[in-house]
Amino acid sequence: xxxxxxxxxxxxxxxxxxxxxxxxxxxxxxxxxxxxxxxxxxxxxxxxxxxxxxxxxxxxxxxxxxxxxxxxxxxxxxxxxxxxxxxxxxxxxxxxxxxxxxxxxxxxxxxxxxxxxxxxxxxxxxxxxxxxxxxxxxxxxxxxxxxxxxxxxxxxxxxxxxxxxxxxxxxxxxxxxxxxxxxxxxxxxxxxxxxxxxxxxxxxxxxxxxxxxxxxxxxxxxxxxxxxxxxxxxxxxxxxxxxxxxxxxxxxxxxxxxxxxxxxxxxxxxxxxxxxxxxxxxxxxxxxxxxxxxxxxxxxxxxxxxxxxxxxxxxxxxxxxxxxxxxxxxxxxxxxxxxxxxxxxxxxxxxxxxxxxxxxxxxxxxxxxxxxxxxxxxxxxxxxxxxxxxxxxxxxxxxxxx
Length: 402
Fold this sequence. Notes:
alpha/beta; globular; three-stranded parallel β-sheet
């Protein structure tokens, strides 16, 4: 999908960060051209967008790690087909940073005289549906929190100038375990940051990114299936390129413990999923037909698609962890509004409860060692460590939705 078409779907005519790129773009490009980069989780939607933004600026070294062999292959094919080659060392690797392969990889790079100036971590379990069972939830804690700490230690071992890890807007006043896990990650980075310095970014939904609800509409259309979306959940949407640019600003221009986020403006406003769904259907030359139930939408698919119409079921959200609206910072956080035009910066407080974080980690490790835990065990631990955690439990999950 062309960027201009994507912007129309999310209610905009211009991309974000135009003014800041005009004033700082040359500085960003110069820093990339001189740098050696390790991108972890670099084959996902936002990770691959960052890899492309780095590649086009010709870094000295660009190494990418991801657990998805297929996504890595497609990343390389896409880059070769659109941008070709660079003089620097570009390579991809397929393994899990939680495994022994990661340690061996870092040691091999250092033994060969390598190392990295910048280490970026995009590995994450990002879906609210990840908290539906205790096993997936524990995996989310391992990936979002402990893998981040592991990659931070690797960055220190490599002598990196900076460590960057992507966060989420859902970490501000979290209502779900995914957001809470990212808030704990931010707290631990505030505790441990300094050698190397760390920075993060909170940004909105990346429109039509892999695994997102809008991306699923593409698949439903291909498979001639009805579309569904909540009509009461409002979100900010950015393109993958805009998300990547925000990450570059944070990584290259952010100070220790900074959390970058897009400032609200006429170019960035809340939209419902239902509104974007209708826009998307019309962009395909089809007319959305709103159905009263999932069953009606399924039954009318053949009839409507033959008339260049498409069945859509819109509903009020009732699933666990769904926040009605998004926010990028809380009233208790200090925000720098002056450094950039379209970017705000949360000054992440380093005065975190270090003893509480240590106890949180120890109790998680004990549960893992015992090999037995419940979902409530984990929810209770997050309530103890995240002061503003307003967990929204309804007993229903996204697996109960079309």
